[in-house]
Amino acid sequence: MTDQPRPRRRTTVLLDRLPLPERAFLADALRAETVGGLLLLLAALAALIWTNTDQHDYEAVSHHHLGPAALGLHLSVAHWAADGLLTVFFFVAGVELKRELVAGELRDPAAAALPVVAAVCGMAAPAVVYAVTAAAGGGSLKGWAIPTATDIAFALAVLAVIGTALPAALRAFLLTLAVVDDLFAILIIAFFFTSAIDIAALLGAVGGLVLFWALLRAGVHGWWVYVPLAVVIWALTANSGVHATISGVAMGLMLRCTPRPGEEHTPGERVEHLVRPLSAGVAVPLFALFSAGVTISAGSLREVFHRPETLGVVLGLVLGKALGVFGGAWLAARFTRARLGADLVWPDVLAVAVLAGIGFTVSLLIAELAFDDDPALAGEAKAAVLLGSVIAAVAAGCLLKLRDNAYRALAAADAVEVTDAHHLGRDGDRRLAPPGGEAGHADDA
Prior knowledge:
This protein is mainly α. It has a single domain (about 15-195, about 245-405), classed as Na+/H+ antiporter like fold (Up-down Bundle), CATH 1.20.1530.10. Helix content is about 70%, strand content about 0%. Strand 2 (about 65) and strand 3 form a beta hairpin. Helix 3 packs across helix 6 (about 170-190). The N and C termini lie far apart (about 60 Å).
């Protein structure tokens, strides 16, 4: 009896060339996120200039309260930005996560292994770095979650500006990594930064979400139905003690992101297309404007490196993120069936791992939640987030530029080889041609 050949184990190629529909979607997402990142940067700079030139005026506007007190919504402008407008950002994150789970990279467990493991390790390592640094200096451990989040808008803006020749699959990896990162950041906020629970309000929010889901499944259309219902769900969540942004994620996850026969765009894609400009162009920049206003001076910057909590934030973003993301990706490739795409090498992953250390939007939010009882320390933690993000962006920019130059050199070498081959082919045709005519005329004869 002849031996049957043993079936080969299927190898999943990670970060390889994407299919055309995913490349088109990625290009659209990059365009939106790049513009959002630039607006976010401008808003952060405006906040820094405003608070360092007229701190009294900035705080007066930021702490001005408005809203119906009877509904428990008499909030400051800063809280409206953090709890209200930022819910739009988390709603878009929820839709992105749902799409990745049902139609993107995360639908295949083998292909999802690398970005998921990289994201988990990329959140665990900064938390460990912060905890070790804070504990060694006798500081508070409450800020352990601050350096765990990656700001996808800033990261993609840096990648788009510097890494123009990098493979598109590397950008897809960063986008998928950020989606998983957002998911775990949401869970951290939900489980570790929830105050006392108001059961009645929480049950009301859950009931509203059930109604939201039922209307979607019944095929009910019309923004005049969903927008008022979403506002009610948000208000009930805000009054329940759970952070209000969780309601945005929950509603985003309920949208259908799998196409039906004859359907060009899913409801999730259509809604995300409509809401993303509001998120990237209004919600996130306004949040940055009223959250990034920290006093910057030579003394305050020196203090960042002397206080264990702030030093832990900086080291967590700069070192913890890079070690965690790169180490997690290597572990996934080493101990699973997955491997890198043929066009990529590990220095590419290292550059993106350093880039993941840009923590801004969610990191600033967690800094407020972690040190809500100590405004001074919260401000210093925000300054540490800004400083750590700048260091990570500069370091990643240098690495990405080196990789970008390397890929440009490879492309130029390939172009030279193609040109030489073309000329060689033409010269060969001339040598084969009969005297007094071109090669093509020999057939006519």
